[in-house]
Amino acid sequence: MIDRVVEAFRASGVDYASNVISPRTYPRGLDVEVIRRDALERAGIEDHDPAWREHVTPYIYRHPERFELLRVPADEDHSDQRWSVDTAEDYTLMTRIYEALGRDDASWQEALAVVEANPAWANINREVVQRLVPSGGDGD
Q1: Measuring CA to CA, which residue among 77, 97, 93 is closest to residue 85?
Q2: What is the largest CA-CA distance in the chain?
Q3: Long-range contacts made by residues 49-54, C-beta under 8 angstroms, separation at least 24?
Q4: Residues 105-116: what's their mean pLDDT?
């Protein structure tokens, strides 16, 4: 997945390429973002909102008039999956997936097959609400 986004970025010459530009199609937690250095430097100069210093990329993707963006979607929509590890429930789900796979080098598609074979697992972290990146103030 990383290679796919990096290759798309290199081939296109854009400022920013990602698999999370809306609408999301990959499971949450498999986020890949590739940014040109000069675009990141410009964002650092232009963005005056301290809330966005923790998350440096929102300024870029929230300003498509200033930066050229490339969305790299999955072939199918799997955005209903949450594979981020932010809560105990997330950790429980990811532990089950990892144990079912039995190895470290499995692809995300193999992990998806395990989850699809165990549909009740999706309920483990279904109620977790994703924290949102603040919508800017000064820099917006």
Answers
A1: 93
A2: 48
A3: 49/134, 49/136, 49/137, 49/138, 49/139, 49/140, 51/134, 51/136, 51/137, 52/133, 52/134, 52/136, 52/139
A4: 95
Record the pTM: 0.83
pLDDT at 11: 98
Q: How far apart are CA 138 and CA 42, in angstroms?
A: 15
Give the number of other Cβ atoms within 10 Å of residue 44's Cβ: 12
With vertex at residue 16, the alpha carbon angle to CA 14 and CA 17, rounded to the nearest 5 degrees, is 95
pLDDT value of residue 133: 59
SS3 17: strand
Q: Are 108 and 1 in contact (CB under 8 A)?
A: yes
Res. 40: pLDDT tops 70 = yes
Check: CB of residue 11 under 8 Å from CB of residue 72. Answer: no
For residue range 78-87, what is the model confidence (pLDDT) as tens digits?
999 999 998 9
Distance CA 140, CA 137 (A): 5
pLDDT, residue 47, reads 87
CB 16 within 8 A of CB 36: yes
